[in-house]
Design goal:
The complex is a heterodimer of chains A (121) and B (252). Chain A is mainly β and 121 residues long. Chain A contains two helices and 15 strands. With 252 residues, chain B is α+β, with helices and mostly antiparallel strands. The chains are: A mainly beta (121), B alpha+beta (252).
Chain lengths: 121, 252
């Protein structure tokens, strides 16, 4: 996952969508993605996703692991760990394996844990 | 046989002594061949293709980036390597990125004949080797027919095959003309109040195979830093399209 220093240097990212940039459509990536701007559509990557504090996303999201700081309207499906920071505002359902939610974050939607679903089956 | 394509501006007398030096060095190295002097209206693509058909072993562009960029259409997707002898006009960024810093050094590089296979970008029916740049204002980028990208801030969008510098890119991004991808690099600037100099604030980077560039404000795009073309522009990658003779100080 992105640590703070790497994120600042963009060392691990294969794709960066910076502030002032608006992307609309289907985005399918293989590497790590940083979103600091606006995204509308569907966002899918086999790598990790970092959503910056000022990012605005209207999309269903799929990623290996994710750290969310901005606004997301849409469902989030993460294979591994999902970290929701205090600036995050999420309107949508979440599926992940484990989660951490910081004080101040807003989450309106269902949250399911993957391994619990597997045990139930 | 080596075929030397002399840019049209080399017919000016002020270049005579430099050309004499280059020709002497070429002869010393046993690299002499045929010289084709371009007129201002000569079709470069046709000229180069004719020379390759006649059995040219190497096509050597003697001129600046403008000639290098124009000669690609004739030499791309052939087995004939392209060599370059740069003539300093201030437009030599591509040659520098290829590790060729002067005309004297270029002769030795031709002799060493270090050939690399590189990708080329295609624009409509033509090629580019380095970058394609367009202002962000009014620009819409439709990428891989999957998503579109717009920028609200001033700045420029750049499609990169061969970067002309290692600096100015975020983090550890390494752009190479041998990675099988084009990189889309969007740089935005913010005008500060009471300041004449806009500050660079953000960068976006994406790998792309093909894209269409539109501009609602009719801004043209600058190809390889030397020639302008109007939108819409279809851009894609032509992998391993060019054999090129490079120096060891190249940027990839």
């Amino acid at each position: 996952m992105f640590n703070k220093e790497d994120r600042n240097n963009n060392k691990e990212a294969e794709t960066i969508i910076g502030p002032s940039v608006k992307v609309s459509g289907e985005f399918n990536g293989n590497g790590n993605i940083i979103v600091e701007g606006i995204f509308d559509g569907n966002l899918k990557t086999s790598g990790n996703l970092y959503v910056g504090d000022k990012a605005k996303i209207k999309a269903n999201i799929e990623a290996k692991e994710a750290r969310i700081g901005g606004e997301i309207t849409g469902n989030i499906k993460v294979d591994g760990h999902l970290e929701i920071s205090s600036s995050a505002k999420i309107l949508g359902d979440i599926i992940c394996s484990n989660i951490s939610i910081a004080k101040g974050a807003i989450l309106n939607g269902n949250c399911s844990m993957k391994h619990i679903e597997a045990v139930a089956k | 046989m080596h075929v030397y394509i002399y840019d049209y501006f080399l017919s000016q007398r002020k270049h005579d002594s430099l050309l004499a030096k280059i020709e002497t060095r070429i002869t010393d190295l046993g690299l002499n061949g045929k010289v084709v002097r371009l007129g201002q209206i000569k079709n470069i693509k046709e000229t180069v293709q004719n020379e390759i058909r006649r059995g040219a072993k190497t096509i050597i562009a003697v001129g600046d980036d403008e000639l290098v960029s124009q000669i690609l259409d004739g030499v791309a997707n052939t087995s004939t390597p392209l060599g370059i002898i740069p003539i300093n006009t201030g437009k030599n960024a591509i040659t520098t990125a290829l590790g060729i810093n002067s005309s004297e050094q270029a002769c030795d590089i031709l002799s060493a004949r270090r050939i690399e296979k590189i990708d080329l970008g295609t624009i409509n029916a033509s090629f580019f080797i380095s970058t394609l740049t367009i202002p962000n204002e009014g620009t819409i980028l439709q990428v891989n027919q999957e998503y579109s990208m717009e920028t609200t801030a001033a700045g420029e969008s750049m499609v990169i095959n061969l970067p002309i510098t290692k600096n100015g890119f975020p983090g550890n991004f390494l752009f190479s003309p041998q990675d099988g991808n084009l990189e889309l690099f969007v740089k935005t600037k913010k005008q500060k109040k009471f300041s004449l100099h806009p500050k660079e604030v953000a960068q976006s980077v994406l790998s792309v195979d093909n894209l269409t560039i539109l501009n609602t404000k009719h801004h043209p795009a600058l190809v390889d830093g030397v020639r302008k073309i109007n939108t819409p522009i279809d851009v894609s990658i032509n992998k391993n399209a060019l054999n090129i003779i490079v120096g060891k100080d190249r940027l990839f």
